[in-house]
Amino acid sequence: MRLKTLEMQGFKSFPDKTVISFDRGITVVVGPNGSGKSNISDAMRWVLGEISSKNIRGSKMEDVIFAGSQKRSPMGYAEVSVTFDNTEDDGKITSMSDYDEITVTRRYYRVGESEYFINRKPVRLKDIHELFMNTGLGKGGYSIIGQGKISEIISSKSEDRRAIFEEAAGIAKYRYQKQEAERKLDATLDNLVRLEDIESELEGRIGPLEKESEKAKKYLTLRDEKKALDLALSVFDIDTAKAESGELEKSLAAAKNSLDRSDETLAELEKRDEELFSSLQSEKAESERAGEDISALTEKIFEGESEIKLAENDNTHLSETVMTSRGRIAEKKAALSAAEEEKKHCLEAVRQSESRLAALGGRREKAAAELKAQEDKINECAVITGELTEKYEQAQKDDVEAKVAVSVAESQREANLKKCDELTVELSKHDEDIGMLDERINRAKEKISGYDKKLGESDSETGKISAKKDELIVLSRKLAGQKNDLFLEISQRKHQISNLLRMEELLEGYSRAVRFLMTEYRAGNITDKDGAVPKIYGPVSQFVTVDEKYSAALEVAFGQSLQNIIVDDEDCAKVAIAFLKRRNAGRATFYPITTMKGNPVSGKALGIDGLDGYIAIASELVGCDAKFRGIADYLTGRIIVAKNMDCASVIARRLGFRYKIVTLDGQVINAGGSYTGGSVSTDSQMLSRRAQIDRLGAEVTSLEKDSAETEKDIAENEKAIKAVTEQEKTALGASAMIKTLRDAESTQMQILVSNREVLKEAREQIVSQFSQLSSLAKREGENADECTEKRKRLSEEMAATEKRLCDIGREKAEAEKRAEAKKTELSDCLIDIAREEKGAEMAQNALSAATEKYNAASDDIKALEESAAGAEARIAENTARAKEITAQISVLRAEAEKINSEKAALSERSLETERKLTEVRAKQKEMTHSRELIFREYANTEAAYKRAVEKSDKLISFLWEEYETTYTQACELCGERITEKTRRDAASRQGKLKSEIKALGDVHVGAIEEYKEVKTRYDELSSQTKDLRQSKEELLSIVVSLEERMKEDFSATFEEINVNFGQVFRALFGGGSAELKLTDKIDVLNSGIEINVAPPGKVIKNMSLLSGGEQAFVAIALYFAILKVTPSPFCILDEIEAALDEVNVDKLADYLKNYSERTQFVVITHRRGTMEAADRIYGVTMHEKGISDVLSINVSEIEAKTGEKPV
Fold it and tell me: Domain boundary at 654, 685, 716, which?
């Protein structure tokens, strides 16, 4: 078996899909600290079934999932797959021999769920553990040595070291089989105890159940005999009762005929009575209606006269209003003219003030410019004074130095000439050496230039790819944000829909009676007396729809009627009311579809169709099924919807306050003129819920469509990112290889340059010394003359500087005087400007006040003119209305006189009808007495008949209730019929049977079947108990056999490892001794393992006395001793040589090479010696913080191209 590939996605610092291929030999993984290279060994340990998060450097299992970075979002799962080549016989997994490749996959979701696969098929974690037992890859195996764990092999307790040795000895699988056998044995013993308890319990029940069974059988025999007698006696008694009822039925028919004739006569008299009474009532009703009509007409006449008086009074007040308004208009116009004149004066003052300010501004700017010029002159004089003073002081200092230099020059000249001769010889030798180094450096530069060009091209390509990737990542974040926003919006709307549907379902906002009734109806608990379920539709609000903008108005228009319940007809309403009354559940109003008919009005008929603010009649805004239209019209057909309260007031006044009007914001003008209004709560509205649900549903559909489009864009973008990432990895790999070659050449060139610089610096020092000495020798003779001349020149300069300082002082004093005068002038100018600005501000304020007065007067005149015009219009309207009402009053008076005449004629007809009615009622009384005598005879006969029939029915009911048998079936089952003679004996036998059954006491008829079941179960349990005892013996035998096998294999392997440990230790340490010992040689399988070592020249009594490097080297020696006995297919070693020095690292590298023919090694390291032993190198980097990238370097390819290893 050979390790082929490791694939990671979402695991720790590897969010993107990363595939690492492994060849034979040694694969080294390198990278800086924190780059994520140790995550590769964690991934291998995790995919092979590690369940401890601590062993993979985490606090909880969720830590294996990529947690996100500055630019990347966290992932929802981690997945690792490892693939093995299973074609080789060495280390082949026999249980999977049919497969050339074995791929093990483990996936973990952030929610805590895990999935395991072998060759893409789902398996359990247990199956993965069993697959790798005895291969060195299983739990406690030695194939993966984690970071910092190598020394734990020797530092842990002696008992804790057993796992590695057991895996090497191949007994881990036997131990697992033994544990499984012991677990099965424990389960078998538990089952055996449980079955024995049940068997004992059943054995105690069999005896009593047998007796109960016999008693039940006797009871069934007696019961069957009693049933036969009960049927025979019942049939006899039913036949007797039927014969008696037949005779009585004939007598009842004759009495019924007499009674029917009397009823016919009475019916005729009652009909005549009703006709006369109806005529009388009709005549009286007509008379009353005539009286009511006269009263109504009188009331209308009175109302008309009152309205005329109101109009006259209103006109008087309105005339006074017109006169008052006209007077005030004249006053306001005078004020308007005064305000306009004042406004002109103020405007002129503002303009003059602005002109003066402009002139003062010019003065201020001129004075400020002149002041700045004088200040600049003062500063310039100060600078020149400083420079001249510094120059004078420097000249004095130079004069002193020149005097000293003359005396020194001559003494140095001779010494310098002698040393120049010696330096000439040394300079010649250095020139030859530098020439040779220059030639080698030029050759190295040419190579580096070539590499730089290739690297620049590669980096440029990588930069383009990275820029494209960054753009895609930015787009990915943007799309993820869009997806998140859409998800939140969809969730929010779905939550709103859910709440609204829940409110509808729970009838939230409805009265207790409505909620109770609808809940019970849905549960099917409301029925009529015949058991039929009445048709109850539900509250009105659930069957009408309105536009959301009209919901507030319609909610008020419907009012409490929204809670009233729609039913099919009057009978349904009666059933529902009776149910509420019976259950004491409150009161509700019901609308039967068959009786509710509306009489809606129309805006056109009322003459308000074109009025400002008129919306519609409320019923026109209500949508519903056609069968509910009558109810909707009844409730809202005479309610008007207006835009606002002002418009509603105009409409109400036009209609004489005869109709209810509601506004869009829920205010009301009631019929009769009362106003209702204020704030309207939207929390409990029922009418708008369905509209909201439909609207939110449409929004959810639209948002889900947008979300699907975004998901599609995200998938395409992720695909593009993966493609670009692969391109980036390829480009980075090429750059890394070129950079490695360039760095090697650069290092060599740096050494040459360093050597050349050393020689060059030495030569420059010689040249510098020679030049200095030659110059000094030449100049020293000239220095005396130069210094004398210099002193003369310095004296002249100092005299000129003193004169210049005096002139500059005078110029500065004059400039300061002129500057002071300009400051005074500028200050006076600023004061004048401030004074003028204050005056301008006051003029502006006066202008604003005059403008406000003018505007106020204009507005007042306009309002007064509108008021006067309105009053005059109302005077004309009232005068016209008074004339119209006067004409109506004349018509009403004529109509009242006509109705009064008709009423007198009706009174005479009523007296004649009353006389005829009295005669008919006397005949009725006589006939009623005669019928009463006939009815008594009929009732007696009927009672006797009912008693006979009731007796027969009771007997038939007895047959059904007792034996579920009809009369016909009883006739068939009773056999020989009982006669009048044999009935007494049969009744006596029936009594005895009852006594015998009663004497049996409580009888458990089920005991017959229960006895059979318990007996059968007892026999089955006895058989199972026998099988379990046999299984117990077999499992005990297996446990003993496995222990013997484990002891043999462990002892043999332990001795072999012990021998190898001594050999490997001496080879690594260059001598010394090492030994392994069992702490308990008798109990080999549970014994601890001690390690005794003695490095050359040392006596070690305790392993802790060894240095850290020595402890690690001892553990490595033991590790190779185990590999020598039981080679693992592959080993992953994570920085096991961290504590070793360079010499021991080289020794470890040699050992790895020797063992790499049989075992694949994957080594995570920082050490150069280990890298040199590698056949392939993987570099782990983090070009983006928190995200690891893997670069591959094939050592043999680079060595073939360059002739050198890249490390």
Answer: 685
Residue 487 burial (10 A CB sphere; 0-12, 13-18, 19+): middle
How far CA 1027 is from CA of 186, 195, 823, 953, 1021, in Å, comes to: 15, 11, 125, 64, 10
The confidence band for 649, taking pLDDT boundaries of 50, 70 and 90, is very high
Contact assessment for residue 313 and residue 827, using Cβ atoms and an 8 Å cutoff: no
Residue 589 in any domain: the answer is yes
What is the rounded distance in angstroms from the CA atom of residue 420 to the CA atom of residue 426? 11
- Which amino acid is residue 23, in one-letter code? D
Query: Is the CB of residue 1121 less than 8 Å from the CB of residue 1060?
Result: yes
Torsions phi, psi for 82 (to 5 deg): -125, 135
List the one residue out of 713, 719, 702, 716 whose CA is nearest residue 479.
Answer: 713
Residues paired with residue 1111 on neighbouring β-strands, in sequence order: none
Residue 886 CB partners (closer than 8 Å, separation 6+):
304, 308
Tokens of 407: 């005396």
- Strand-pair category, 1187-1194 with 1176-1184: antiparallel
Rounded to the nearest integer, the mean pLDDT of the chain is 79
Q: How many other CB atoms are there within 10 angstroms of residue 8's CB atom? A: 29
Residue labelled with tokens 């050496």: 433
Q: What is the mean pLDDT of residues 557-577?
A: 89
Decide if 565 contacts 539 (C-beta within 8 A): yes
Long-range residue pairs from 405-411, CB within 8 A, at least 24 positions apart, any chain: 405/783, 405/787, 406/783, 406/784, 406/787, 406/788, 409/779, 409/780, 409/781, 409/783, 409/784, 410/780, 410/781, 410/784
Q: How many domains does the chain have?
A: 2
668-669/639-642 β-pairing: unpaired
Nearest CA to 442 among 749, 18, 58? 749
At 1029 the three-state DSSP class reads: helix
> 64-79 b/e with 16+ CB inside 10 Å = b?
bbbbeeeebeebebbb
Q: What is the CA radius of gyration of the chain?
A: 60
CATH number for the domain that contains residue 674 = 1.20.1060.20
CA angle 851, 853, 857 (to 5 degrees): 120
Is 15 inside any structural domain? yes
pLDDT at 1036: 80
Range of the domain at 34: 2-168+1041-1202
Q: Classify residue 613 by its DSSP letter.
A: T
Q: How far apart are CA 81 and CA 43, in angstroms?
A: 9
Q: What is the mean pLDDT of residues 245-264?
A: 79
1120: which 2 tokens? Answer: 């190779």
How does residue 160 score in pLDDT terms, banded at 50, 70 and 90? Answer: low
Q: What is the pLDDT of residues 759-806, one digit of tens each?
A: 777 777 777 777 777 776 676 667 766 777 776 777 777 777 777 777
Question: Residue 668 in 3-state DSSP?
Answer: strand
Q: What share of the chain is helix, strand, coil (3-state, %, to 5)?
A: 70, 10, 20
Going by C-alpha positions, the residue among 792, 864, 800, 1100 that lies closest to residue 330 is 864
Domain containing residue 1182: CATH number: 3.40.50.300
Task: Report if residue 657 sits inside a domain.
Answer: yes
Helix H or strand E encompassing 26: strand 26-30
Q: What is the DSSP letter of 14?
A: B
Q: Considering 665, 685, 705, which residue would you say is the last residue of a domain? A: 685
Angle at 1159 between CA 1153 and CA 1164, to 5 degrees: 70
**What CA–CA distances, in Å, run from 962 to 61, 143, 935, 955?**
70, 83, 39, 10
pLDDT tens sequence across 821-866: 777 776 677 777 777 777 777 777 777 777 777 777 777 777 777 7
The pair of structure tokens assigned to 834 is 């401030």
Establish if 673 belongs to a structural domain. Answer: yes
